[in-house]
Amino acid sequence: MAALLIPRRNRGMRTRLGCLSHKSDSYSDFTAILPDKPNRALKRLSTEEATRWADSFDVLLSHKYGLAAFRAFLKTEFSEENLEFWLACEDFKKTRSAAKLAAKAQRIFEEFIDVQAPREVNIDFQTRELTRRNMQEPSLSCFDQAQGKVHSLMEKDSYPRFLRSKIYTDLLSQTQRRLS
């Protein structure tokens, strides 16, 4: 039943993420979850692009391969729910149908925010309660504070570790070797 609630495009990513079940922080694991075929994707990724990911967290999140690499890294740290919540909120903000808004909001709340949620994100009690109150009349901004807290947590905590990770350093080395 849960698979029915996962948007179609996320199911493919979940399948690709299955290869990381052994939680190794290695470059070969990262290539298995690239959005395209690994060799073709790495040929498309320039050293300059991969280096720009270190400029800012938002630059990393806005790049298809940067997002895939960061997701793979979070998977090794057992904290991918933070990124999945942030992405779910980004998708939620694009909802144009008032009829779908409440149902999508409820799904996100139950999956990420509610106490004992299957993929509960680490937010403080006040933010959780504000989000719970926002659910009484869901709007496109009902998750803004929680999403901001999770974004800040990833930016200050996970992102610096990602930039020092074997996944990222191996990826940079691979793009540089291609130029030699």
Task: Please tell me about this protein's structure.
With 180 residues, this protein is mainly alpha-helical. The protein has a single domain (48-178), classed as Regulator of G-protein Signalling 4, domain 2 (Orthogonal Bundle). Helix content is 70%, strand content 0%. It contains twelve helices and no strands. The protein has helices at 2-5, 8-17, 27-32, 38-44, 47-52, 57-62, 64-76, 80-92, 98-113, 125-134, 144-164, 166-179. Helix 8 (80-92) runs antiparallel to helix 9 (98-113). It is found in: Cell membrane; Cell projection, Dendrite; Nucleus; Perikaryon. This is Regulator of G-protein signaling 8.
End-to-end distance, in Å?
50 Å
Name given to the CATH architecture: Orthogonal Bundle
In round numbers, the mean pLDDT is 83
Would you identify the CATH H-level superfamily?
Regulator of G-protein Signalling 4, domain 2
Strand content: under 5%
What's the structural domain tally? 1
Main pleated sheet: none
Helix content: over 70%
Q: Report the uncertain regions.
A: 1-28
Bulk shape: elongated
H and E order = HHHHHHHHHHHH
How large, in whole angstroms, is the Cα Rg?
A: 17 Å
The count of β-strands is 0
**SS field, number of helical segments:** 12
Q: What is the CATH C level class, in words? A: Mainly Alpha
Structural class: mainly alpha
CATH fold-level topology: Regulator of G-protein Signalling 4, domain 2
